[in-house]
Design brief:
- The chain is of the alpha/beta class and 443 residues long.
- The protein has 15 helices and 14 strands.
- It is globular, with a radius of gyration of 22 Å.
- The protein binds pyridoxal-5'-phosphate (PLP).
- The site of pyridoxal-5'-phosphate (PLP) has 14 residues, from helix 5.
């Protein structure tokens, strides 16, 4: 396949569905370009008007194995003729998927608990940690995103998600995340000696009542703008929290199953978290999430204390098993690493000449492009960011709406099956769009 735009965009059918959406759905979801998906295959999306786009979104970093992979579809079809739901009764797919997750994650993690959504997984991690540990305080980071329900809002670090929803769960301490392009402590990476880790002591001194329990973090902050901690940060954090007897929870809902060029992002730093939250790519399209952890933590829960109506259902687990098999068999982790590196190199070249591409960062196929008014002031440029995404849409490339603390980051995350030539085509389109938008803005 190849990108093919046959109508003016949005086309007539797309316009109709967007209007219906405005009428019948709340406008609480993120504001995407009016691309109304009808079907998708591998990295190709066809909209309701028959236009074909290259997918740089993977939904929202979900469809790691590509859209509607034949083996994945077959596994779901086969299971759909057998059994959909049997609640907490043991079913073979759930147990086999739990076994597989334990095998894939570091050896000290020896149990897995299947759930439905990423938020359910992160909140479950916190519940388990609190039950296991005598403390209850959770240390988290500015910019963190762990989901949108009440617990996850509380230990999330972006007010945009929680503003106006009333008092949230107490017992959360908030520390600055190493957003080195805009260091919250006003430091420079070359000279800071990771001052943000030393600052954690100040956070504890000023916010803790003496009941520290766990620290929760994403490996790189996704929603805050694909922010990757600098070398050494994770190692120092891990040492710091061990000295204080705190558990480490890593939210790998977005960063796992090959997305960063490793099965799990924790492998980049050799981390040994006590609990990991998984989601998105695990089901690769069918809702499926999990907590993988140390047995002694997970076993503190007694029967009936934690379960979920659809968690671990045989259909989702069949999809999960098929997705993991495809990732393994087709070498998608390695593909993400190799193609991701090529894409980053391409973006870094564009960064040299573009006056509005302020920063390029990424791991594997999770890449963020930060758009600014100019490189000297680094003033965030959310309107220019939207314009670049719109220009890409007009050229047959699908990108998700801007992310980031300031709404000025373009997220590039194609399915892990993407071939290098198409990845580079997409990089070129983003380059063209950046040029067009900078020109229109008189830059
Ligand atoms: N954690 C992270 C790091 C995420 O990126 C997300 C979703 O974007 C979540 C948790 C929440 O997942 P869900 O939307 O499936 O509840």
């Amino acid at each position: 396949m190849a990108p093919q735009i046959k109508t003016e965009l949005p086309g007539p059918q797309s316009k109709r569905f967007v209007e219906l959406s405005r009428r019948y759905e709340p406008h609480s979801m993120s504001d995407q370009v009016p691309l109304v998906w009808e079907r998708a295959e591998d990295v190709w999306i066809t909209d309701v008007d028959g236009n074909v786009f290259l997918d740089f979104s993977s939904g929202v970093l979900v469809t790691n194995v590509g859209h509607c992979h034949p083996r994945y579809v077959e596994a779901i079809r086969e299971q759909a003729g057998k059994l959909f739901n049997c609640y907490d009764f043991v079913n073979p797919n759930r147990v086999l998927l739990a076994e597989k997750l334990v095998q894939l994650t570091p050896p000290h993690l020896n149990k897995a608990f299947l759930l439905t959504t990423g938020c359910e997984a992160t909140e479950s991690c916190v519940k388990m940690a609190r039950r296991f540990h005598e403390g209850y305080e959770i240390l988290t980071f500015g910019g963190a995103f762990h989901g949108r329900l009440y617990g996850a809002m509380a230990f999330g670090g972006n007010v945009g998600v929680k503003r106006g929803f009333g008092p949230l769960m107490p017992g959360v301490l908030m520390a600055p995340f190493p957003y080195c392009y805009r260091c919250p402590l006003g430091q420079k990476l070359e000279t800071c000696d990771l001052a943000c880790i030393d600052y954690l002591d100040y956070v504890v001194k000023t916010q803790s009542t003496g009941a520290l329990c766990a620290v929760i973090t994403e490996p790189y902050q996704g929603g805050a703008g694909s922010i990757i901690p600098p070398p050494g940060w994770f190692e120092r954090l891990d040492e710091w929290r061990r000295e204080r007897g705190m558990l480490l929870i890593v939210d790998e809902v977005q960063s796992s199953f090959g997305r960063t060029g490793k099965w799990f992002a924790i492998e980049h730093w050799g981390l040994e978290p006590d609990l990991i939250a998984l989601g998105k790519g695990l089901g690769s399209g069918v809702p499926c999430s999990a907590v993988v952890g140390r047995a002694e933590i997970m076993d503190v829960l007694k029967p009936g204390e934690m379960s979920s109506t659809n968690g671990g259902n045989p259909l989702s687990c069949a999809a999960g098993l098929a997705a993991l098999e495809i990732i393994d068999r087709e070498g998608l982790v390695e593909n993400a690493r190799v193609v991701g590196e090529a894409m980053l190199a391409g973006f870094r070249e564009i960064e040299q000449r573009s006056p509005i591409l302020g920063d390029v960062r990424g791991m594997g196929l999770a890449i963020g492009l930060e758009i600014v008014e100019d490189k000297a002031s680094k003033t965030p440029a959310p309107e220019l960011t939207k314009a670049v995404i719109w220009e890409c849409y007009q050229r047959g490339l699908c990108l998700i709406a801007p992310i980031g603390f300031y709404g000025n980051v373009i997220r590039v995350a194609p399915p892990l099956t993407i071939e290098r030539n198409w990845a580079e085509w997409g990089v070129g389109i983003i380059g063209e769009a950046l040029e067009a938008v900078a020109r229109q803005a008189g830059k």
